[in-house]
Amino acid sequence: MDDVVRCPECSNELKQGYIFSPRRICWSDSPDSIFADFGSETLIGDALLKVKKTPALRCEECNLVIFKHKKNNDIK
Ligand SMILES: [Zn+2]
Known about the structure:
This protein is mainly beta. It has no helices and five strands.
């Protein structure tokens, strides 16, 4: 992939890399604090044996990170 992707905020060239987390990463439409992640959408699931890495793009100027999550095939 050698297309240059630019930051939607500052138009800088984005750096390619990977994002990962030993815990799941969830999305919520609401800023409210919750006790658990019940009802929220899991973007990246918990690590089972190996930590999965998700391809991501990052702007080092404004600390924006863009990643495309997959549907959680391995999370029930
Ligand atoms: Zn930027």
